[in-house]
Amino acid sequence: MRKFLLILVAALLLSVAACAAPGQPAAEPQAELSEPLTVRICGDGVEGGEQSVDLNALYQQYASSAVYSTVNNWPLPKFYAASGVPVAQVLAAAGVGDYGTVNFAAADGYNITLTRQQLEEPRYSYPGLLSGDESGAEQVEPILALAFKEDSDDLAEILPDQPAFIFGQANIFEHTNPAFIENISVITVSAAPPEQWPLAYTFPVPGEVRAGDLVKLQHDSFGLVKLHYTTDGSDPDQLSPMYNPSTYQPELNVPLTINEDTLIKVRVYGYGKQPSDIAEWRFTVAQ
Fold this sequence. Notes:
It is built from four helices and 18 strands. The protein is mainly beta. The strands form five sheets. A five-stranded mixed sheet has the order 2-1-11-5-6. The longest helix is centred in the first third of the chain and has 14 residues, at 2-15. The radius of gyration is 21 Å and the shape is elongated.
């Protein structure tokens, strides 16, 4: 195994500049890797119910290298330099056609599910992430990384590791890092359409309040979703203010202060399910 890792990292470092465009075959193989590195793909969305895919063989054809911007749940922005196999090529090799969701599970049981839309929609890396600059965004594709380096934007620093699921941001504010799964052991593909996230709710309940009262937004899956809201009457989307930016710093989840009659609208976003319908509540200030 040590010999395989040394061969792989040498091949990666020599070939970074020559990597193919995302999703396209590499101009020439990256290395002749004799040891197979397989991942098990199962579920009712997989041809025959289960397939074993050789990632090394796919890497020789479809190597993809990029720097990925991401935000974690503290929330802290960071970068991952990574090289691996596009997820689209892995699923195709397993005979996956139409599907609803894909679950990526680590050997320790940690896992994340994405809907087909979340996996296939355009995703980007933002070089100006640390300063909040959206310019210069580069489209990147979801990969099973065979070599990567956390907290790095330098592809020369990547090191071989167990397969890891890494993907780009739909927008510069999206918290993708909690969905990065290292040491992938199995991928489960479901043909069933994804469910929808339930509505958020408030405390206190809508109605008459006093000027200066605080309203908290709540959800039964608070740690798994992001609540995006508006107070100007517009419909919220993923670029609207985020109520719960941190799972680990609850002090950042600031309640809304009601000083005048206010209409609050909230939509729930999270991986593995469709966004919720828009919930809306009207609070009136007692005269």
